[in-house]
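Lab notebook, page 48
Experiment: co-folding of the full assembly
Goal: obtain a model of how the components sit together before planning crosslinking
Operator: M.T.
Materials (sequences as entered):
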Amino acid sequence: SLNAKDKSNVKAIFAKAEPRIIFVGHSITKSYFSHWKDFTAGSAEVRKHGLTVMQGVLRAVDMMDNLNTSLLSLSELHAFKLRVDPANFKIISHNILLVLAMLFPDDFTPDVHVSVDKFLAQVNLALSVKYR
Ligand code: ZNH
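Observation: model returned without errors.
Model output:
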């Protein structure tokens, strides 16, 4: 679980990302969908979705002490309504890590990397609750 240092690391780097949320979200979805030949198809929606996911992650940062309960309805949405394969949560988490490392190389120390990785793993678990 997240210790005090993890929590402050996670809060600090996402606080830095927040003012650039549109750009961060776009970078994440761009790397996520890079295998698409025609990225322009539905591009506006794809861009918008990056922002949506990042807003969800920022909300999760604020609620990191009880992710399972706070993300319950979001888990239900992804499991039953959207039917997103939970394997995708891992991929998008990896992209979030990459984008943070690219945007904030000085802040993205090995220490912060571990903390953000732990945090995103917990977000994924919380989002996967309703799949079981
Ligand atoms: Zn998701 C939606 C979050 C991942 C797909 N999402 C959504 C939302 C949110 C989110 C917040 C909105 C909701 C409402 O509206 O209510 N996601 C999220 C997060 C994550 C995610 C946080 C991670 C981390 N998603 C994801 C993935 C996918 C998805 C991976 C796929 C692949 N989502 C989705 C969809 C939707 C969503 C499809 C819907 C959209 C619209 O409607 O627009």
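Interpretation: The mean pLDDT is 91.
Next step: discuss with group before ordering constructs.
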